[in-house]
Specification:
Layout lengths: L10 H15 L7 H17 L11 H7 L4 H11 L4
């Protein structure tokens, strides 16, 4: 959790959830939870591997990180353990 009054901690997460709600969730209906989970996994894969971002020089996030030899997995692990969350 971020500290009170410090919105910078949540910028990337808020941006992702804004895109998720607008591009994936709104105006859609799912027949079951399993259909929702399957479609959500498909959307997240598309978001990371195929969605080109202007701010990333028209590359997907995975392509952009690959330019610099970075991987998403270590960053996720570091962020979870660095904050002391259990």
């Amino acid at each position: 959790m971020s500290r009170k009054g410090n919105c910078l901690d949540n910028t990337m997460v808020e941006s992702f959830f804004g895109h998720l709600k607008e591009e994936f969730y709104r105006r859609r209906h799912f027949a079951s939870i399993s259909e929702f989970v399957q479609e959500l996994n498909t959307y997240i894969h598309w978001y990371n591997h195929a969605r080109n971002e202007e701010s990333l020089n028209i590359l997907s996030p995975v392509q952009y990180r690959a330019q610099f030899g970075q991987s998403a997995a270590p960053a996720l692990i570091d962020n979870r353990t660095a904050g002391g969350c259990t």
